[in-house]
Amino acid sequence: MKLAFTLGALSLLLPYAGNTQVLATPSQVITPVIQQAPSHLETLRERARKAKTNIENVRKNDLTSIIYDTASSIKAPLFKVPAAKRILGTTGQIVISEITTPDGFLAVEREWIFIGNKEDSRYFQSSNFTHIDAKFLKALDRWRYIVKVKATLDELSLIRDNLPAELQSQVGRNHIYLSQQKQHVSETLVHKKGNASPTCQSPLRVGMVDSNIVEKHPMLSHLTIKQMTFSPEQTENGSEHGTAVASLLAQKLPLNSRLFNASVFYTRSSVSQGATLSSLIDGLDYLASQSVETINMSLAGPDNPVLAKTMTYLTHQGIQIIAAVGNEGPASLPLYPAAYKETIGVSAVDESGGIYRWANQGDYVDFAALGVSIPAAHPNGATIRQSGTSMAAPQVAATYACYLQRQKSRMAALTLLQKNAIDAGEPGRDSVYGFGILH
């Protein structure tokens, strides 16, 4: 039985929505009045958890549950990051020295990120630190510092010793986040003119954090695209992943919508793109300054206190992050930003509703969408089939943006997503499909 959380319950929750706010818009497209409600997504999840407990109690002695539990215990291999590399610039110099951290993720060697006030920089004035870059993030109203530490200090606990308690959650490694797309199916398709069934008619403003976009692709012709690059200078930054993700957003965005892209990826190999945390933070600040209320992030990596803080800042500004849950298999550790409580985590299914075999699973999965062998734009002007949770997330992002415009309330938009999701897997919200599949 499908888990029901109806709009009728909305009236019980609206007192907690906070004051309304009109977001400033630098263009001719007017964004709706949004009720600030950072806890709404967690409210839906909590109700689903309670409903799930009731369902489990009913089917506790059911033979089918024994069969399901046995099957679900067969897991794919645990998460494993690709080998660290030295990324060379256009003239052959080393631009990024990747390392594998003790917890098994990638990061820039000895680089750390701190966000805070301008006067907080005094904590990094000792000989143990070398300032690399400082930038004021206007939309987030914070300073972002990149510092390099001595090899003997390259641990979070040691760096935190230099900070007062209230600032210790604002420093983290300059981690590297990877695109969530498996190698595409090499089938070239004939592009059909026009976008497929947009979910709303009025123009939208949507943001994405990805690689470059080839703007002249026919699948993007009905959009106005604005993009800025935040990847490290002199690194190669391809356009295949970003163009594909943009085209999947475009399928559900109506004529004259505006798509803002923060290009953050650098090329690691022919099948792998990476983004430093510093690039992510700068890119998210840029998107927030464009008054978008929805940002798609088809990338994943480790938990990081600086990224977590940024998610909180964005949420309190009325911005919803939709992120791919990752392609590391059912036994993977939770990946971020999808696993943050403020984020809508999206998995991928095939046309028959079967879960993508490499999709992450866990209680941070909120929805699933088509993301297996799905037609998407290629920079060369063709349309090819792509797979991965990267391809599923933008479809949920565009749908949420439309519902938000229509409902003018974050809670109502999230509830409408849940209401229109087709339950799959176990009854109610589960760790595979979340609330269900969105078409």
UniProtKB/TrEMBL annotation:
Source species, domain of life: Bacteria
Signal peptide bounds: 1-24
Residues of the active site: D210, H241, S390
Record domain Peptidase S8/S53: where: 206-436
InterPro entries: Peptidase_S8/S53_dom, Peptidase_S8/S53_dom_sf, Peptidase_S8_Ser-AS, Peptidase_S8_subtilisin-like, Peptidase_S8_subtilisin-rel
Biological process according to GO: proteolysis
The UniProt record lists the keyword Hydrolase: yes
Keywords attached to this entry: Hydrolase, Protease, Serine protease, Signal
A Pfam family this chain is assigned to: Peptidase_S8
CDD domains: Peptidases_S8_4 (cd05561)
Molecular-function GO terms, alphabetical: serine-type endopeptidase activity
Claim: ATP-binding is one of the keywords in the record: no
Family according to the record: Belongs to the peptidase S8 family.
Protein's name in the database: S8 family serine peptidase
Organism annotation: Alteromonas genovensis
